[in-house]
TrEMBL record:
<feature type="transmembrane region" description="Helical">
    <location>
        <begin position="59"/>
        <end position="77"/>
    </location>
</feature>
<dbReference type="GO" id="GO:0000139">
    <property type="term" value="C:Golgi membrane"/>
</dbReference>
<keyword id="KW-0812">Transmembrane</keyword>
<keyword id="KW-1133">Transmembrane helix</keyword>
<dbReference type="GO" id="GO:0009306">
    <property type="term" value="P:protein secretion"/>
</dbReference>
<comment type="similarity">
    <text>Belongs to the TVP23 family.</text>
</comment>
<dbReference type="Pfam" id="PF05832">
    <property type="entry name" value="DUF846"/>
</dbReference>
<feature type="transmembrane region" description="Helical">
    <location>
        <begin position="33"/>
        <end position="52"/>
    </location>
</feature>
<dbReference type="InterPro" id="IPR008564">
    <property type="entry name" value="TVP23-like"/>
</dbReference>
<protein>
    <recommendedName>
        <fullName>Golgi apparatus membrane protein TVP23 homolog</fullName>
    </recommendedName>
</protein>
<dbReference type="GO" id="GO:0016192">
    <property type="term" value="P:vesicle-mediated transport"/>
</dbReference>
<keyword id="KW-0472">Membrane</keyword>
<feature type="transmembrane region" description="Helical">
    <location>
        <begin position="120"/>
        <end position="140"/>
    </location>
</feature>
Amino acid sequence: HANDNHLSRTMGGNITCYTLKCSYLIFFPRHPIASFFHLFFRISAIIIYLFCDWFSKSFVACFVVIIILLSCDFWSVKNVTGRLLVGLRWWNQIDEDGRSHWVFEISPNKNSSTEAEARIFWLGLIICPLIWTVFFFSTLFSLKVKWMALVIAGISLQCANLYGYIRCKVGGKHVISTAASSFLGQHFIQRV
């Protein structure tokens, strides 16, 4: 094979591909800092949750640190890493009538991210809520009631981003209103 002798080449001007004799392809992310922070906050929250007793004997300190990490993760994934790593962004806005609308933004540039970045993004986005779900059942069956609120917050923040990005990926060209939010918004406005 003539291509096996080339150690590096540029594919489409977007990514550098290193080809080894055994034909493994190694892709380097274009946004290494975004890739790092996409995983850093969520993995740090999980590690601190697992080893909290080693770091501190204070439940409150562990709770606050984990909530801060989960909040930083939610914000960075929703506003930064989703846009850089997969070209997607979502948000929820409320119109003048009090109706809630999901708004999705898809980058028109299909080559804005690499396949490696997309894998990092989606694997982190899918696996971490599953881990928090395992923590939920572990907490439930071990009757560690004080940790339940933290685990529910972890599931909520992780699943909110997962839900938003799945809706963005699947139905990103449409602005989608949620019936429940619009009903609650109208009900609230009528009461006021």
